[in-house]
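Whiteboard transcription, Tuesday session. T.W. wrote the structure tokens on the left side:
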């Protein structure tokens, strides 16, 4: 059973793509447990996979009211496990309600595998209790899927885990079926895009400083910043620079292809990172990326083949790499084509890694 009760953003997209990849692989008889409030709920239904669909919540008020339904949900969850003959459970992203249901999985002696996107909270993330919930869930799991070797290293330093039960399955392009390689029209790349939540560790200030330097050489260069979060620290700087647009809101998944379609370069000026779905999406569209050398970003970008990794986390190094990509047409085309090639098989590889882990854990459980 693939289990994800979250609602929106990369978590829902990741669950959908992993379900599709495992369905294509055909090794398991799949079933799902989903939230009806998921942004992608109707697209999950189109997969034709048996599913236990529940109502979760959309805000604090509905979350408080939903607590009264938890005993009934526990009974429905247990019944679904039994009726479907579930042999193993894969959680594609932890949810606040998960710990209240783990005993139903453990009491049936089912292997439980949780996907950990971030081993610890990023700087500036506010919801501290989530870390305790996540640590508890990891501690009760039989196996863990990470999306980068960096996260695996951090995770193993924080938890006592079996080495062979913690795997890395690479992150493929989210919205994969809706993203398509863009034609290379030969014009110089001038349109820079930053996409994602705006948090301090994302380095928007570094990008703005780099952009100011680039304007001196390329006065027609543009920068589009798309994402929710606190943009207040940057609005004065943005207003003082030409050719910048700020779209400071949550971006629905149906708008993402159009954003990628207007990008020549996607820039990730992060000070810290686990991995990035933005990189995978850009590569699948044939849009080269420029990233800083932090966390799992360096695992996702083949320097000089699918994008550029800056030498340091500074505005000067960021500007230098962007400048190089703008000036070197052969490099730009090589990275555009290389990104498409690289992204084509990632979900197949990821599903194979996850399948091997689940198969091994299930075999071990049967021998006990």
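and on the right, the sequence the group agreed on:
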């Amino acid at each position: 059973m693939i289990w994800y009760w979250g609602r929106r953003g990369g978590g829902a997209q990741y669950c959908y793509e992993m379900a599709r990849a495992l369905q294509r692989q055909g090794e398991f008889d799949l079933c799902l447990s989903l939230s009806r409030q998921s942004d992608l709920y109707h697209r999950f239904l189109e997969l034709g996979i048996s599913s236990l669909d529940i109502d979760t919540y959309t805000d604090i008020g509905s979350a408080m009211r939903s607590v009264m339904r938890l005993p009934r949900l526990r009974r429905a969850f247990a019944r679904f496990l039994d009726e479907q003959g579930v042999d193993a459970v894969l959680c594609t992203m932890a949810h606040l309600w998960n710990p209240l249901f783990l005993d139903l999985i453990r009491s049936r002696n089912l292997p439980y595998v949780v996907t950990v996107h971030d081993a610890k909270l990023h700087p500036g993330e506010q919801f501290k209790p989530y870390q305790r919930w996540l640590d508890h869930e990891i501690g009760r799991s039989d196996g863990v899927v990470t999306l980068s070797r960096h996260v695996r290293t951090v995770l193993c330093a924080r938890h006592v885990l079996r080495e062979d039960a913690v795997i890395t399955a690479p992150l493929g392009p989210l919205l994969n079926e809706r993203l398509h390689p863009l034609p290379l029209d030969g014009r110089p790349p001038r349109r820079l895009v930053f996409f994602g939540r705006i948090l301090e560790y994302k380095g928007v200030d570094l990008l703005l400083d780099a952009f100011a330097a680039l304007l001196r050489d390329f006065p027609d260069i543009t920068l589009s910043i798309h994402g929710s979060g606190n943009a207040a620290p940057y609005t004065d700087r943005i207003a003082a620079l030409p050719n910048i647009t700020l779209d400071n809101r949550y971006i629905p998944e149906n708008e993402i292809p159009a954003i990628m379609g207007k990008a020549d370069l996607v820039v990730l000026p992060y000070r810290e990172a686990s991995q990035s779905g933005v990189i995978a999406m850009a590569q699948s569209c044939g849009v080269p990326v420029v990233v800083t050398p932090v966390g799992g970003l360096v695992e996702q970008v083949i320097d000089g083949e699918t994008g550029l990794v800056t030498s340091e986390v500074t505005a000067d190094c960021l500007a230098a790499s962007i400048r190089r990509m703008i000036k070197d047409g052969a490099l730009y085309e090589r990275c555009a084509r290389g990104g498409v090639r690289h992204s084509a098989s990632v979900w197949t590889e990821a599903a194979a890694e996850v399948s091997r882990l689940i198969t091994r854990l299930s075999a071990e459980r049967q021998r006990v």
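Someone added at the bottom: The first strand starts at residue 2 and ends at 4.
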